Structure formats: C-alpha cells, structure tokens
Amino acid sequence: MPRTPLCDLLRIEHPILSVGFARGASPELVAAVSNAGGLGVIGSSAQPLEALPDVIARTRALTERPFGANLILDDQGDEERAAGIRARYELLVEERVPLLVFFMGDPSPFVEEAHAAGTKVAIQVGSPAEARRAADAGVDVVIAQGREAGGHIAATASLFVNLPTIVDAVAPLPVLASGGIADGRGLAAALVLGATGVSLGTRFVASEEAFAREEYKRRIVAATAEETFYSDDLFDVWWPGVPHRALKARTYAEWDAAGRPPPGERPHEGEPIGALESAVFGRVEVPRYASFMLTPLFDGDVELGPMWAGESAALVHEILPAGEIVRRIAAEADRVLAGVAAYATR
C-alpha cells in the first residue's frame, strides 16, 4: 500500500481508519485495526464518562500504536449535553489520545487546546462549505462523507461528488473518504479522487471484534444496497433531527406500511423494545424508534432497533477479524492501483 500524507501525519502504515460507531467500537476492535497498520477509533460519545478512562486504558493495553476517539459535538442546544461534551473532550485531551474525530458541530473551540496537548484533530463533514469552516478552525484532517454512508449522515450529495469538491475546497489539507467503501477498490478509487485515505464503518461492524449483536453482523453480510434506507427522522428518539441510514427491518416495514407517518403518529410509538444493561446506569428501557447501537448489552429483538449500515453492506460478504480486513483492503488497493498505473502507461 503506498504511503500517503495521512500515514506520515498519524504515524500509521495503511491509510485506513475504523469509525468510532458508539459502544460497538470496542477496545479490541480499535487495537486490532491499529495493530494491523491502520488506525482504530473509540466511540467515546456513547460511553458513560465514568467508563471512558477504562476504555482508553484497555485500548492502550492491547496496542502501542496510535488510535483515536470520536466526539459528537451536536449539543442540540442543551446546556447539560454541552457540558457532557466538554467533559469528554477534556478527558480525551488529558489522556493524550493521539487523534480526536469530531462530527456534527463547530470544532473551533476545541482545536487549540488539543494541539497544545499533542493531539491531532479530524472532523467528518458533509459539504465543501462545512469543510472550509473546519479548515479555517485549524483541524488537521477532514473526512468527506457521502450520502451512501451508514449511521448518522451530514451529507446530501454522494461521495463521488462530495469527495473531489471537498478535496478542492481545503487543499492541501488531508481528506479522508467515508461512505460506500468496504474494499480495496473503494480505497483505490478514493485515492484517485484526491483522498489520502478512508474511514470505514459498515465493513468493521461486520468484524469479529466489533461489540455488536451477531444477528446484526449477519444481516450486514446478507444485505444489498437496496436493503438499506435513508430517513430524516425514523430513529430519532434520544438524538432527534439527524438523518441516518440503516438496514430495513421490522420497525421500518411497519412504518412504511403505515404510510411513513411523522414522529408522534408512528406505529407502536413509545412502546419498549427491550433494555440496555449498563454497569453505570443499570437497566435502561429502550423505546421504539430509539437511536442507539445494537451491542450485546441490548436485551431485545434486533429487528426492532436500528441496524446502522451504509450501501457498502452490498460489498461485505463475510465476518472477518478486523486486522484481516485492514490487510485485505490494503493489498487489494495495491493491485488495483498497479492496474491503473499499467493502463495509464499504455
């Protein structure tokens, strides 16, 4: 795999990051990605603040290589939520996590302090305008998201459009590609379009180390792109107002059959679908349409919860160790780029 500027910036071998998909991004997954030469990212926003130091310590016990932590900046105008974001940020900086990956918010209040601690800052964006604002704030890396992505989505355009326009908007800042990529062909294509690497979620959910329900992983492996759906507000309880993509399952089917009614009028609204077990908070009831990650801590029917997945699920054909995923993507990208180079010299 050719080294890109991202590799030098983050001190990694392969320009491949795993997404910090909430508590599913376990220390085991993060360390496996980093140990294979990529960079794994902890899902810190979904962790209870009290548990986060232990998650970081467990990750450091499993790898000596760089890793990251995500932080969602969307406080929804809520002072308590904003205070929680700030507390997590300060903890991550104090712990000197090598890379912070922000999403959905203004990074400018956070960049200077992170840099002073030796921490690099990335942010996932959905448009060239958002990318330019992030560059002006001083971030080190921009992650260009496409509408094909799974989970929560800032983009309205496809990656094929967003990536080159964002690269142009912030050059020479390193740009990663995210959304619709699950193999070496996607990595090679992203590099050709100007990216310096990729950030992958769906592919790593279907890994052995991901802390996700096995039924969820198997559904990703079996899915086609058409079996995902994009919605502005289906799974909006606990995190309203954020578009998202997930696999079609029972909750989607019942909502679709009812004519896709708005929040407040949806089938079975408010009914519990199970519970989440937490060492910090105890047993927490989960209502229908809640936004959360289907980990083994969820005691309930996965068909009723959000199985976040991008259109790249169509490219995922087996559950593999995360390190093997990194190595296969890097090797396949090498072969594809060699073929492109050979074609270009004809």
Descriptive notes:
- This protein is of the alpha/beta class.
- 36% of the residues lie in helices and 17% in strands.
- It contains twelve helices and 14 strands.
- It has helices spanning 5-10, 27-35, 52-62, 79-94, 108-116, 128-137, 159-170, 184-192, 202-205, 214-222, 250-257, 322-344; strands at 16-18, 41-42, 68-72, 99-103, 120-125, 141-145, 151-152, 175-178, 197-200, 228-231, 244-247, 272-278, 282-287, 298-300.
- Strands 1-9-8-6-5-4-3-2 form an eight-stranded parallel beta sheet. A three-stranded antiparallel beta sheet has the order 7-11-10, with no helix packed on it.
Which key terms come to mind for this protein?
346 residues, 2 domains, alpha/beta, 14 strands, TIM Barrel
Quaternary structure of the protein:
single chain
| Strand line-up in the sheet with most strands | 1-9-8-6-5-4-3-2
CATH H-level superfamily title of the largest domain:
Aldolase class I
Q: How far apart lie the N and C ends?
A: 23 Å
Write down the overall geometry. Answer: globular
Q: Please, how many helices?
A: 12
Topology at a glance:
Elements: H1 5-10, E1 16-18, H2 27-35, E2 41-42, H3 52-62, E3 68-72, H4 79-94, E4 99-103, H5 108-116, E5 120-125, H6 128-137, E6 141-145, E7 151-152, H7 159-170, E8 175-178, H8 184-192, E9 197-200, H9 202-205, H10 214-222, E10 228-231, E11 244-247, H11 250-257, E12 272-278, E13 282-287, E14 298-300, H12 322-344
Parallel strand pairs: 1-9, 2-3, 3-4, 4-5, 5-6, 6-8, 8-9
Antiparallel strand pairs: 7-11, 10-11, 12-13, 12-14
Helix pairs in contact: 2-3, 2-12, 6-7, 8-12
